[in-house]
Amino acid sequence: MKNPCLFPEILEGLNSAKADTKYGCVKALRLVSEQRPEVLYPHFDFFVHLLEHENKIFQWNAACVLSHLARVDVQDKFAAIFKQYFSPILGPVMITAANVMQGGARVAQAKPQLAGRIAEEILKVARARYQTTECRNVAIGHAIIALGKMLPLLPNPAPAVRFVRKQTRNPRPATRKKAERFLKLRLGTLGSPR
After folding, report:
1. Residues 69 and 133 in one domain
2. Which range marks the domain in which residue 61 is found?
3. Is residue 82 part of a domain?
4. Is residue 5 part of a domain?
5. C-alpha to C-alpha distance for 44 and 114, rounded to whole angstroms
6. Which of 36, 37, 111, 125 lies at 20 to 30 Å from 72 by C-alpha?
7. What is the model's pTM?
8. Does residue 49 belong to any structural domain of this protein?
């Protein structure tokens, strides 16, 4: 979106009855947030409202957009939505939780002073309730990836490392592999926090 004046037209497209138009517009907003977050930052509150939208795809994209806007959050607006942003981690929708955890890793990169608090929120996946146990194991895999991206930023990496070590016995093979990869790749640079 080279022209910020197009924002109202894109917003109008979000209300379209045509799925192609609606989801094309939300994808455009996500792409702009990745490449030029400063263009969307004046509309921060709009994306906060989308976190509560009835359309889950809008929620997922809002979480993504807000995580990119953290890079240009000079007014520290993210602080006011911290709890709201991370609340989906406890469930019940695994995909929403996964998007929030991945977004949390991006927020931690942009705002390293929040990394410890963000890790605490991500670690809540251990007691989350999703539709199935398998959904929880998938979400744990997303948590491992997010924590891996954040590990060097954590003032106390030990809780994250303990959580990941436990997941080497996770019943989901893909999640076990993520835990093993995390321990192999990440701990070599940090030593071995207990």
Report:
1. no
2. 1-75
3. no
4. yes
5. 19
6. 125
7. 0.91
8. yes
Same domain, 171 and 100: yes
Residue 142 belongs to a domain: yes
One-letter amino acid at 49 equals H
Q: Residue holding tokens 């979106």? A: 1
Query: For the chain, how many structural domains are there in total?
Result: 2
114-121: Cβ within 8 A, 24+ apart = 114/78, 114/82, 115/150, 115/153, 115/154, 115/155, 116/154, 116/155, 116/156, 117/82, 118/86, 118/150, 119/147, 119/150, 119/154, 119/159, 119/160, 120/159, 121/86, 121/89
Q: Which of 75, 98, 128 is the last residue of a domain?
A: 75
Distance of CA 151 to the CA centre of its chain: 15
What is the tens place of the pLDDT at every residue in 27-60? 999 999 999 999 999 999 999 999 999 999 999 9
Chain segment 7-21, per-residue pLDDT in tens: 788 888 888 889 999
Q: Could you tell me if 88 and 100 are in contact, meaning their C-beta atoms sit under 8 angstroms apart?
A: yes
